[in-house]
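Table S2 (text version). Query chain:
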Amino acid sequence: MKAFATLFAVLDATTSTAGKTAALADYFRTAPDADKVWTIALLSGRRPRRAATATELRTWAAEAAGLSPWLFEESHAVVGDLAETIALILPSSADIAGLTGLDAVIRRLIALTGQPAEARRAAILALWASLPPAERFLATKLLTGGFRMGVSQGLMTRALAQATGRAEADLAHALMGDWNPAQTAFGALVSALETGAGSRPYPFALASPLEAAAATLGDPVDWRAEWKWDGIRGQIVARPGAFALWSRGEELITDRFPEFAPLRDHLPEGTVMDGEVLAWDRASGRPLPFAALQRRIGRKTVPKALLREAPAQFLAYDLLEAGGEDLRAQPFAARREALDTLLAGLPPGLPLAASPLVTFYDWDALAVRRQTAREGGTEGLMLKRAASPYLGGRKRGDWWKWKLDPYSIDAVMLYAQAGHGRRAGLFTDFTFAVRDGEALVPVAKAYSGLTDAEFAEITAWVQRHTLERFGPVRRVPPDLVFEIAFEGIQASPRHKSGIALRFPRMLRWRRDKPVAEIDTLEALRGLLAADRGLRAPGPPRDI
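Corresponding structure-token output:
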């Protein structure tokens, strides 16, 4: 565990990509194999199940430290992170035996699953007592389910390639799919012989935001354009004895979309497609709003009524494997032609179609076409270089997402809460409201978009102007106005305003705007009605 804690400290102390890669590569060369496997698992989002709730951890830590609950909560409010608070307040024993490594700690946590509260309490107190503060902090992070290391999976794969001598692309593929770190040996995990087997997906290729003019990309003849759909990115894998639907987050979601089961009987064996899962209005040939699909995302089983109200469609836009042959090194134009040929040979009526290409001959005409995206329920355009291979991760230059400008409103801050991690000492999480007559109605929470200097200035203002405290949350006078950007809007009975904003974030601090000039709830309702009108059923379009 000491080696893992040292690695974490190095990664947390630097923003250098080269420094992080070197530290990880050195760790992968020297750490025990079982610890390597768990480190790979943690960095690819495979965390052990929570063995205790945050409330239980607060209570047990306060008791162990001899603190009253209110004093623990005040300490937590100052520190800003539960695991760090526990690591700091618990007494350190002069005789700490420690554990052999990360694997030993995680296996102790796994063993607690399903145990009575008292048994879990005793085991967790013993675990805390066996570790020095730095390692206790990491163990508690694993307990809370909030473990993060600030390292992308791509960077981790690069470091692993340096340490093992294996090709980065082969390792990225080997680490995809459904594998259990508690039952996987390091050698088998990184073996290139294991790639491509069963239902394993390929690493997803990602696009970068297009911030410059499209004309800077060069001759339009070298590019292909598609609509950017607002759904769930996924891969359909149909191999001998295996059929699976994987999300971009490497979650197996086959059972959540039973409409796709017939594809098992019609897709040729050895087929892998990349595309988008959408809730689809089959009568109009248009996507339903993302909110319709969202109702299905968290369910393991889908009621028949919901299947009728939000049927799923898979729009494929790339063919990664055909007849068992890996096509990723071929140019996008060739892969796309092969995809169209494959889909043209399938019987009609399946919940599968090709995402249409958008024909264009010059960038100006395409820019005009892009402005119609919301009418078809899309977010903008995707631009892909015709000659580009399919490369896992975000390889800047070949794939671009050319999204529409977001919606935006001016709103006033009502509540502030401290952030976490490196922002634990700053107020960064805010609740914003718009006017409803003479009242202010909360409509969004946001925590990103400002500079550290602006967050520091707002923090000082919050500390001087706090009106009330509700645990870590502070109510402040409605004086500070911000421009809030968001990607979509939908009706929501769960919110007092009746409206939910999708992906809200702060565009800028409007120091120039008084509260009397912020937007109104009526204006948001009008935007919602207009958005619904754009998506209303109508004649099928070529999207």
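Notes on Table S2: The domain at 2-144 is CATH 1.10.3260.10 (DNA ligase i, domain 1). The chain has three domains: 2-144, 205-401, 407-531.
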